[in-house]
Design brief:
GO terms for molecular function: carbohydrate derivative binding; D-sedoheptulose 7-phosphate isomerase activity; zinc ion binding. Its EC number is 5.3.1.28. The protein is of the alpha/beta class. Helix content is 56%, strand content 11%. It starts with a helix and ends with a helix.
């Protein structure tokens, strides 16, 4: 492996993050406000995604339930990607496209937030979860890339779309992780004050 190839990954990542900073800072702030308001009203945040996005959903929920960088009470968040029995039962008995929507239908309440993560914006099961969240009168915060894909057509005016300005999956996922950290930090700052 050439050192130059590795250095290029770092340069590309930095360039993507700087471009994302310009386009996403304001909508990320709005997403923080939305999530904090839901949590302050006794609601919860459900998160879903596939593959690396599933890991990001779990990471986000763990940071809220546990802690991000400061000690505080746990906050109600749930990754819909973690229960193997639910995932396999719904996939087997219904369809894989329903693995998240079925959970949103069972667990989501009006005022809850769905963090829907899909790098391409085209994941059928994430799109179905968004539709179900709307049926449950939930707010959706969509974390995408590659122009947003079909998510662009499914979001309501009250939803927030955080679309990373990149077509490379690795770069999109890197910014997704940074965005998740911004969301967690913002929620903590609103809860406990800025330090």
């Amino acid at each position: 492996m050439s050192v130059e190839r590795i250095q290029q990954h770092f340069r590309d990542s930095a360039a993507t993050q700087l471009a994302a900073m310009e386009t996403l800072a304001v909508p990320i702030a709005a997403a923080v406000d939305t999530m904090f308001a839901a949590l302050a009203n006794g609601n919860k945040i459900l998160a879903c995604g596939n593959g690396g996005s599933a890991a990001d959903a779990q990471h986000f929920a763990a940071e809220l339930i546990g802690r991000f960088e400061r000690d505080r009470p746990g906050l109600p968040a749930l990754a819909l990607t973690t229960d193997a029995s639910v995932l396999t039962a719904v996939s087997n008995d219904y369809a894989y496209d329903q693995v998240f929507a079925r959970q949103v239908r069972a667990l989501g309440q009006p005022g809850d937030v769905l963090l829907a993560i899909t790098t391409s914006g085209n994941s059928a099961n994430v799109l179905a979860a968004i539709a179900e969240a709307h049926e449950r009168e939930m707010i959706v915060i969509a974390l995408t890339g590659k122009g947003g894909g079909l998510v662009n057509e499914t979001l309501a005016d009250t939803d927030i779309h955080l679309s990373v300005p990149s077509d490379r999956t690795a770069r999109v996922q890197e910014v997704h992780l940074l965005t998740i950290h911004c969301l967690c930090d913002g929620i903590d700052a609103m809860l406990m004050g800025e330090d």
